[in-house]
Design a protein that fits this description.
With 258 residues, the protein is α/β, with parallel strands linked by helices. The chain has six helices and eleven strands. The strands form two sheets. The protein has a nine-stranded mixed β-sheet, sandwiched between helices. Strands 2-3 form a two-stranded antiparallel ribbon.
């Protein structure tokens, strides 16, 4: 089975970001560390587990973005992916262009099953997987926590998380599955895997290669702003009865919650 995984590179969760001068985004050049989107790590793991369960096939990681995205693809290869594809594009592309590029590259390879994370932790749009499925004209299932591919490899059953429980969906293949974090525990890249990943060739496409040289973004980010700084905490001193009295006074007079 030909399995693909959509991968996005995002800033490390511990990174302190800064809004750029035009308030149209973050200062990407100041990000010291970039990582594989955590939801996509679960997608990679599920793709690898599916291949192992079926005992055949290949897993290909695919990502769109600038040259630094290759690092995320190397991580996917080190985790166990067989192949990787980098679609070269600059930071200015939006979800529309990224999804069209991913779909165009997938059409060249005809995957039977595509995995993705349900969302990226940088913009939280949870939109790319749906766009890609639409452009490929295949069904998609999101917020998935369990996947079982039929023995004939023509269909699958997916269990989705919904408020208060789960919901099971059956669909034909090819299909795109957007996974949630509860689906598995992603494996760590082994040292031998890291060494092998460094030597593997990563196939590269430009937008022009995919017939998208004239595509332009349909949306533009604006008015980015960091949350307002929190006020410093007040530590009450003295005996407990005095602290309680002071706390009640502040809640009434300053916070005005009682």
């Amino acid at each position: 089975m030909n399995i693909f995984v959509l991968v996005k590179q995002v800033p490390d969760t511990e990174t302190k970001i800064r809004v750029n001068a035009s308030s149209s985004g973050i200062e990407a050049k100041e990000i010291a560390k970039w990582i594989v989107n955590p939801y996509d790590e679960h997608a990679i793991e599920e793709a690898l587990k599916t291949k192992e369960k079926l005992k055949e096939g290949t897993v290909t990681a695919i990502a769109v973005g600038p040259d630094r995205v290759v690092e995320a693809l190397r991580t996917a290869l080190a985790m166990g992916c067989d192949n990787a594809i980098h679609i070269k594009a600059d930071e200015s592309i939006d979800t529309y262009v990224a999804a069209k590029a991913l779909a165009a590259a997938c059409k060249k390879e005809s995957p039977q099953l595509i995995f993705a994370g349900k969302q990226a932790i940088d913009d939280d749009q949870a939109a790319t997987f749906g766009y890609v499925a639409e452009y490929l004209d295949i069904p998609s299932v999101s917020v998935v926590v369990k996947v079982d591919v039929a023995t004939d490899k023509k269909s699958l059953r997916a269990v989705r998380e919904v408020e208060g429980g789960t919901h099971t969906v059956e669909t034909s293949l090819p299909a795109l599955i957007a996974v949630n974090q509860g689906i598995n525990n992603p494996r760590y890249a082994s040292l031998p895997g890291i060494m092998k990943a460094k030597k593997k060739e990563i196939k590269a496409h430009t937008l022009a290669d995919l017939g998208l040289g004239s595509e332009t973004a349909l949306t533009k980010d604006s008015a980015f702003a960091l949350p307002p700084p929190r006020k410093a905490c007040v530590i009450l001193q003295g005996e407990v009865p005095a602290q309680v009295k002071e706390l009640v006074k502040r809640l009434r007079e300053e916070a005005k919650v009682i």
